[in-house]
Amino acid sequence: MLSLHFLCRQLDDCLMQETPLRSRDSCPHQVELLDTQEVLHADRLYLGDPHSLPLLEQVPAEPGTLILLANMADQPVPPPPAGCELLAFTCSLFKLYN
């Protein structure tokens, strides 16, 4: 999988807000859409959009979990769950996933 640094460079014009990232050189090898998870795991990259925001408030997350949110141009960016890293983008979820 591509590094987070590469991803952020490619979508730099869409990046709204980010939390300080521990490592931009690596990226989890599993990608999941935020949907109905019971726990967010640190070994995965989660993709979501404004519809995913309630899940972030309800589901526990392991420290180091990485969350990317798309379509956030008209939304206030929430604080990340404790110990998590969050990047918010204005682009669509489709563009972010590809």
Written account of the structure:
This protein is of the alpha/beta class. It contains 3 helices and 5 strands, in the order αβββαββα. A 5-stranded mixed beta sheet has the order 1-5-4-3-2. The chain is globular. It starts with a helix and ends with a helix. 21% of the residues are buried.
Describe the secondary structure blueprint for this structure.
Blueprint: H1 4-10, E1 15-18, E2 30-33, E3 44-48, H2 53-58, E4 66-69, E5 85-89, H3 93-97
Parallel strand pairs: 2-3, 3-4, 4-5
Antiparallel strand pairs: 1-5
**Could you report the average pLDDT, rounded to the nearest whole number?**
80
Strand order of the largest sheet: 1-5-4-3-2
Low-pLDDT parts are none
Strand content: 15-25%
- SS class: alpha/beta
Give the number of DSSP strands. 5
Largest sheet: 5 strands, mixed
Count of alpha/pi helices: 3
Query: Whole-number radius of gyration?
Result: 12 Å
The coarse silhouette is: globular
Q: Helical content, roughly?
A: 10-25%
